[in-house]
Write a structure and sequence with these properties.
This protein is of the alpha/beta class. 35% of the residues lie in helices and 24% in strands. A hairpin with a 4-residue loop joins strand 14 and strand 15. The longest helix has 22 residues. GO terms for molecular function: electron transfer activity; FMN binding; metal ion binding; oxidoreductase activity.
């Protein structure tokens, strides 16, 4: 028997933890797992807000039934149609055949497309209200945060924002469900990694959504992933403002590929100068060992970036190529870029990295430093100069 977890007297957390899945969306590593959050309002009319990934449905159903027993669910609110939230729709519908599935005009065709039914659907529009008895639900569209049908649901009695993927995080909820029950800073990195890799491309729609929701009085943010937030509301909203505007801190992310150590040596020289010049936050990543999601997350945090690659088959090292392609696809803005490269017979890596930086309108520091064969004194000094100039840029920004 489950002990109900209450957001209020009649609103319950019925989410589940997933510690078995290795890759979120079959792309992003989950070293700390992930939570699929769903919420149940037990009022005159009973409403379920989102479902969970279908592999976790048994635990999910048990939690629901421990609260409402054999009563029926009247409404299923679908804020977002990705399978980690909507995957159990068919099972819920089979258990509660009279349930009305609530979504907007972009949601409902997806329900038919994924699940093959088009009855017992209730279309709602921006600002519509659904009366459950003691609780009133209002709906606000949040397109491209991060799918076109995404919306959020606001419960006006307890002032709870059910925010879909917005304000979500990787990581399971290990006993503590609410942010004030835990060391919330433990989730900072995973919240940023979630935002930067899942939502990060859509900074402008996020800004529009934040502006739209700015007038709501919010006591709790109940996201579809990660902690339920009731203490750090201003903090997480401020973080979303920063990330969606590509605002950064002083620091440098150095991402490199190196087959035999020559390019890595150039990285070490540059990093040492950055430290000598007072840059405290330096993160060095080998793109062949560290998944790009962790690198991208830190690029969203720190202003300075150094990319280093040998020429490989007349182009970039494949793992560096994959990283810059993702950054280009996301349209990441507002960074300083230093470029390092090495080659044996024909050098093209630094040219490709320069084209990448120019495509995103990043400010390129000095000329790229490219060495033929092993690192020699002249290029050693150029690495040091590049590191100093990048440090100067960052420190001037901080004044």
């Amino acid at each position: 028997m489950y002990q109900p977890i209450k957001l209020s007297d009649e609103i319950f957390y019925v989410g589940v933890n997933d510690r078995r899945t290795n890759l979120f969306e079959n792309m992003w590593p989950l070293p700390r797992g992930v939570a699929y959050n769903s919420y149940l309002i037990n009022d005159d009319k009973i409403a379920l807000i989102d479902t969970v990934e279908i592999g976790q449905v048994e635990k999910f159903i048990k939690k629901i039934q421990s609260i409402i027993g054999d009563k029926k669910i009247d409404y299923l609110i679908i804020n977002h149609m990705e399978p980690d939230h909507a995957g159990s729709i068919s099972i819920i519908r089979n258990l509660y055949p009279e349930i009305q599935i609530v979504g907007n005009k972009k949601t409902l065709p997806m329900i038919e497309g994924f699940f093959g039914f088009n009855d017992h659907l209730l279309e709602i529009k921006e600002g519509d209200e659904l009366d459950l008895g003691n609780h009133k639900l209002q709906f606000y569209m949040a397109p491209m945060v991060h799918w076109p049908e995404t919306m959020v649901t606001y419960e006006s009695t307890q002032k709870i924002l059910f925010s879909a993927d917005a304000f979500g995080s990787f990581g399971t909820l290990d006993g503590a469900i609410f942010d004030d029950e835990m060391d919330f800073s433990y989730f900072h990195d995973e919240m940023r990694r979630y935002y930067s890799n899942i939502v990060g491309k859509y900074g402008s729609p996020v800004q529009k959504a934040l502006e739209k929701l700015g007038g709501l009085d919010i006591n709790i943010i109940a996201s579809a992933h990660g902690p339920v937030i009731r203490k750090h509301i201003e903090e997480v909203i401020d973080l979303y403002h920063q990330w969606s505007r590509f605002e950064t801190e002083e620091g440098v992310v150095i991402a490199y590929a190196s087959m035999y150590g020559n390019t890595e040596e150039m990285v070490e020289v540059t990093a040492r100068v950055l430290a000598e010049e007072g840059i405290k936050n330096i993160r060095i990543y080998d793109v062949s060992k560290t998944h790009s999601s962790f690198i991208i997350s830190d690029i969203f945090k720190f202003k300075g970036v150094v990319l280093a690659s040998p020429t490989y088959n007349n182009g970039l090292h494949p793992n560096m190529e994959a990283l810059v392609n993702k950054l280009q696809h996301m349209g990441v803005k507002n960074h300083y870029l230093g470029i390092l490269g090495s080659f044996t017979w024909a050098g093209t890596a630094t040219k490709r990295l320069q084209e990448f930086g120019e495509s995103l309108k990043w400010e390129i520091i000095d000329q790229p430093v490219e060495e033929k064969h092993a690192l020699k004194q002249t290029k050693y000094e150029e690495c040091r100069i590049l590191g100093k100039h990048l440090a100067d840029k960052l420190k001037n920004d901080s004044k």
